[in-house]
Design a protein that fits this description.
Blueprint (H helix, E strand, L loop, with lengths): L2 H9 L5 E6 L5 E7 L2 H7 L8 H9 L2 E6 L3 H15 L15 E4 L7 E4 L8 E3 L5 H14 L11 H5 L7 H4 L13 H15 L4 H16 L3 H15 L15 E8 L3 E10 L2 E11 L6 H16 L5 E4 L11 E3 L4 H28 L1 H15 L8 E10 L2 E11 L2 E2 L5 E4 L8 H19 L6 E5 L2 H13 L7 E6 L4 E4 L2 E6 L5 H35 L6 H11 L2 H6 L2 H8 L1 H12 L4
Parallel strand pairs: 7-10, 10-11, 12-16, 16-17
Antiparallel strand pairs: 1-2, 1-3, 4-5, 4-6, 7-8, 8-9, 12-13, 13-14, 13-15, 17-18, 18-19
Helix pairs in contact: 1-12, 9-10, 12-13, 14-15, 16-17, 19-20
């Protein structure tokens, strides 16, 4: 296994998608689908395989590329498209006549609804494709049972009906058709059925499931239990049903999809090539920014490169960036909803995964550069004057107003520095007053750092909103540190970031590394504080039990707890072992107390 392949295995996402194996010449030799890309691809390299061809395939893998999708169905359909296009050496051969079925609502008077494997551009509406034929037929059977639609292929133009050219068939006599061929049903009434069916096929299956539940209940009441069980199986299938796929869409023809995500130094541009409604090419390119170029400057350059590389001449570009048409007769689309929006979101997701993969590789290969990038990102996101190499976060903790404590956690270069964590017992505040407690611990922490000549943090994070932040700021001002330490507060509910003197918070992208580090610090401060608080309450409770012994005071109780760590160990100790800590006379008092029956 090459070093490049080994590094890629470490950074694959745990998401559904397809993977492509390339040989040393850059030729695709295998395309596969996966529910979990990381687990599936890694499984090829962990052991020797029973199948000789698989071992040969693995030996020839020089590079791995992948594309994430929403569901296993999407992965299956995309795998099908790519195998047909590239016909990789180690894949089974998929012939074009074996395509997935669709449900068609025919473009005609009194439209028929039927299954087909041929998508014809005649104005008809196609829904699917369906990787499961049983799923498709479940829907068609339901539609047939709920809606009395015609199944014949007669031309039901108004003039033909008026001329009485047709006679009703058996379907009419058994109640499956209302007889539009003889004018017994109006086209407007029939159109209501078609509108409802169209909504169901678009994915609104709740109404379908409700209808099936009623049918199941009715069959059960009629003692038709086998039919009721069959309907229940349909309901279970529809609960997992996704009628639309982002991978193939008969309404989107020959377009390019391009999107961009970026960090401080690089942009990552994903390109999807759509041909006859199917994704046949996906590629993500890394672009190093030299002059802090904007997305609208980067996208056109990458688009030209991709179109030249893949010989694409699509007349429509779907993108998330406002760019001008750079080719003649080119339409730029920024979709807000629908199938095009779904394709754009798929492209954005792949660009993001590629960026995260690069960040993981960077962390493994060049940790210093990884740290520098995170520091630069935090500086920009939090509007700081310098990199926040040293950050401290504070949290208060009390239980019903008792045992008030606080915690300070320290991060350096974006990582926990646990040896620098500190606990504080609140000394000057009576009762549950979080604001006064925060003011006290901030003053004590930074007064001590100043007195001892220790370095100050570039950023202090307060777990709380404006009230907590204002309390902390009083101590910062009293110590003359305003302007020397940046101070922010983070509110729990909406993850709002507050700044001193500014009543309007800012919101950081929930997917950003900056917010993840701040959330990590807050969670660590909360965990560290709660642990100390719990230990303090426990020790206070144990100390109270020992001081109930005549002749044992607080000092003796603390000495015993410090030595034996718990009441259980103290109970199990001999009088001689206790005497080593507090002397023979008090040891006898303690030993005699524990020998008595405890109520």
């Amino acid at each position: 296994m090459s070093a490049d392949v080994r590094e890629k295995l470490k950074t694959l996402p745990n998401s559904p998608g397809i993977y492509q194996y390339y040989d040393k010449n850059g030729t695709i030799i295998y395309v596969g689908k996966a529910k979990d890309l990381k687990k599936r691809v890694s499984s090829y390299f962990v052991k020797a395989h029973d199948n000789a061809k698989t071992n040969i395939l693995v030996s020839k893998i020089a590079d791995i590329k992948y594309m994430v999708v929403d569901t296993e169905l999407d992965a299956l359909l995309l795998e099908n498209n790519l195998i047909k296009k590239y016909q990789p050496r180690y894949n089974i051969l998929l012939k074009d006549d074996k395509t997935y079925p669709w449900i068609c609502i025919k473009n005609e008077e009194f439209p028929r609804v039927f299954s087909t494997r041929r998508v014809i551009k005649d104005g008809s509406k196609y829904f699917g494709p369906y990787a499961s034929g049983r799923m498709m037929h479940t829907l068609l059977d339901l539609i047939k049972e709920v809606y009395p639609l015609r199944t014949c292929n007669l031309n039901l133009a108004p003039k033909h009906i008026e001329q009485k050219k047709y006679k009703v068939c058996l379907e009419y006599h058994i109640g499956n058709c209302m007889g539009p061929c003889i004018g017994a049903q109006q086209e407007s009434e029939y159109g209501v059925y078609i509108d409802e069916i169209r909504n169901i096929l678009k994915g609104n299956v709740n109404a379908v499931i409700a209808e099936l539940r009623q049918m199941m209940k009715k069959r059960a009441e009629e003692m038709k239990f086998e039919e009721a069980q069959d309907i229940k199986e349909r309901i279970d299938m529809l609960d997992n049903y996704h009628s639309k796929s982002a991978i193939v869409s008969p309404t989107i023809h020959n377009v390019d999809v391009i999107s961009l995500v970026e960090d401080e130094k690089e942009a990552y541009v994903n390109y999807l090539k759509i041909s006859n409604g199917a994704i046949i090419q996906g590629h993500t390119m890394e672009v190093k920014k030299k002059l802090d170029e904007k997305p609208e400057e980067i996208i056109p350059l990458v688009l030209v490169e991709m179109r030249e590389r893949y010989g694409e001449e699509a007349k429509e570009i779907i993108t998330d960036t406002n760019i001008e048409a750079i080719f003649e007769n080119l339409v730029i689309t920024n979709p807000q909803r629908g199938e095009k929006k779904t394709l754009l979101e798929l492209s954005q997701r792949n660009a993001k995964f590629y960026m995260l993969e690069k960040h993981k590789q960077e962390k493994l290969v060049n940790p210093e550069r990884h740290t520098e990038r995170i520091m630069e990102t935090m500086k920009k996101d939090l509007r700081l004057k310098e990199w926040p190499v040293h950050i401290e976060c504070f949290d208060n903790s009390n239980f019903q107003g008792t045992n008030a404590v606080a915690a300070c956690v320290v991060f350096k270069n974006g990582k926990p520095a646990k040896k620098d964590y500190r606990h504080f017992n609140i000394k000057t505040v009576e009762g549950p007053n979080d604001f006064a407690s925060m003011e006290e611990i901030i003053y004590r922490r930074y007064k001590r750092l100043l007195d001892e000549g220790e370095s100050l943090p570039q950023l202090v994070v307060i777990d709380g909103g404006k009230g907590q932040l204002s309390a902390a700021l009083k101590s910062i001002d009293e110590l003359g540190l305003r302007g020397k330490i940046s101070l922010i507060g983070i509110a729990k509910k909406l993850e709002e970031i507050f700044y001193p003197g500014d009543s309007v918070p800012i919101y950081i992208d929930k997917r950003s590394e900056t917010l993840k580090i701040i959330q990590h610090m807050r969670n660590e401060a909360h965990r560290f504080g709660i642990t100390h608080h719990r230990n303090k309450r426990s020790k206070n409770a144990l100390g109270t039990e020992l001081t109930q012994i005549d002749g044992v005071g607080e000092k003796t109780a603390q000495d015993l707890l410090s030595h034996f760590k718990s009441i259980k160990r103290l109970k199990e100790a001999t009088e001689e072992e206790i005497a080593v800590v507090v002397g023979p006379s008090k040891a006898k008092l303690v030993a005699d107390y524990f020998k008595q029956p405890q109520s």
